[in-house]
Amino acid sequence: MRITISVLGAALAVVSGLAAWPAGAVVGGREGGPAAGSTLMVLNARGGVCTGIVLSARAVLTAGHCADGGTELRVHWKEAGEPILVRPAAVSLHPEFDAKAITARRRSIDLALVRFAEPLPARFAPASLADGPTPRTGAVVTLAGYGVSREGEARSTGTYRSAGLGVVEPYGPGRVLVWAADPDGAGKKPGAGACQGDSGGPMLLGDGTVFAVTSWSTGAQGRQCGLLSQGVLLGPQRNWLDRTLAGWGEAASWR
User: Fold this and answer.
1) Residue 78 and residue 90 in one domain
2) Which of 126, 235, 242, 247 is the most exposed place for a label (fewest CB within 10 A)?
3) In terms of domains, do 122 and 244 share one?
């Protein structure tokens, strides 16, 4: 079901009134990047802005905290310059998602799947997901999303941006999570990374496959962006992803 801005103007207004989220847009990045045709924006009534990854004609993957709280989600894109908002038919949070994980310092699988009653436009190409070894320290990956390009400036959101980051292992090799940072700062000084609005966006390998979903970021001196960017690895969650999608009559593409 498509709903234009005249009907749900309040929901789309979050694009110009961004709320605080665990991870948002790409600061220090460039416009465009890999998987641009496989992504869109995810909005909710609390003012939250996130990124979503198209997995099939009727299914999108995003971060769990973007879909939590029972709010009315809308997926957003533009056609011929006109804003389009689509209401999901179903939302499935990962069973190990914990909404209080950040404040309580507990582990959480911050993923959610969103299903639509009607297919997305054909111009959206399903992303390819990676089910191989986790990239290790120093590996170059790409982080992308629709978040702010300048922290705290809500009007800088809404454009797909990307940045090349290097994998870091501040807590040792991750089996559930991956961390990345600007290669020049290595997570010790500010640089490019995720910011408000990038949650749910792709972290990609050099071959263009999505190996993780952005979920969280840190910044220096009280800021939220520019040091470490965290993502949830998809390979270890393949069983949940495939099982949930199959229950909806959908399937993801894995490499």
Assistant:
1) yes
2) 247
3) yes
Whether 158 contacts 50, CB under 8 Å: no
State whether 18 and 84 are in the same domain: yes
**Non-local CB neighbours of 169 within 8 Å, separated by 6+ positions:** 136, 137, 179
* Burial label, 96 (beta-carbon count in 10 A; 0-12, 13-18, 19+): middle
Q: pLDDT tens-digit profile of 147-177?
A: 888 877 777 788 999 999 999 988 778 899 9
Residue 255 covered by a domain = no
121 token code pair: 């436009």
Q: Is the pTM of this model over 0.70?
A: yes
8 & 121 share domain:
yes
Residues 134 and 156 in one domain: yes
What CATH number is given to the structural domain containing 223?
Answer: 2.40.10.10
At a CB cut-off of 8 Å and minimum separation 6, what does 128 contact? 208, 209, 210, 253, 254, 255
Same domain, 219 and 147: yes
* Tens digit of each residue's pLDDT (9 = 90 or more) over 98-119: 988 867 778 899 999 999 999 9
Query: pLDDT band at residue 9, thresholds of 50, 70 and 90?
Result: very low
Owning domain of residue 105:
2-25+37-127+237-250
